[in-house]
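Quick one: structure tokens for this chain, please?
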Amino acid sequence: MQTPEIRTRTIQTDGLNQQILEAGQGPLVLLVHGFPELGISWRAQVKALAEAGYHAVAPDMRGYGGTDKPERTEDHTILHLVGDMVDLVRALGATTGAVVGHDWGAPIAWHCALMRPDLFTAVAGLSVPFQPRRAKGPPTPAMVAIAKRLGRGELYMNQFQAPDAHAMFEADVATGLRKGFYAYDGVTPTARQSTGFIAPGHSFVSEVAEEATLPPWMSPAHFAEYVAAFTAGGFKGPLDWYRCLDLNWSLTAFLQGQKIRQPSMFMVGERDPVRNYAGQHEPGLKDWMTDLRSQTVLPGAGHWLQQERPDEVNAALIGFLGSLD
């Protein structure tokens, strides 16, 4: 069988130029990356899905890589991010599609399913489980209270609220990325992994050991792609996603109590540090996703699932998509 060509192009959507990585023909599958990643994080999945008979598309998301970078913080809400995916489907000439998200991309995928079930007919999330909207108030004060109760410093998402938080990454892009990938990787010793909580006097970057190395799955050439993209585009847009957390809460009251009814799947690494603060939502997924077809914990895996363990992720996604009517 001939290997489908993986190509990169820029596509005009509703007020946004989006750079996409794509291959294959057939039913559409959108692959939504998180922080600090790019569409290229899905390269192995784009290839595998194309070979399995799907049109696989992995965009650089708003604020990232080759896609436009709106200047205003408030232009990075969940409504903007879901809207980008809605119009990407249209611009690709499709009427429906499956959506898969990793890290920050997982909440986007979950919200695509919640807001547009007519368009997104199946949904899969990696690393970050679906988290129902809190009726008691916005998330950042709650995260401050949790960190204080545990005596564990400051959750990194609260640190990212600062208007200049992106400066810690932009001061040395390669170091910030290297430390981030290392601190959340599955082969990193437990004592060197991030807990998500930052000790007083430290930052997300400074808290990680200086001798942090690239994960074994990250080649120097692949890492150079990330460094070049974030050197050119900066980190303000990516961190603006975090700065909109409370605004997202205020904009999504209409989703209170809403369940995901499409076919769905969830996969997380056993050693993913995100489980320290989001893992509490894993046991209740079946209550919020009425057609949850699989919920998998990958032994020994960390956070970067689709890059750490591409074979298992590819097999799970193809099996899930193949189970759809």
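The chain has 14 helices and ten strands.
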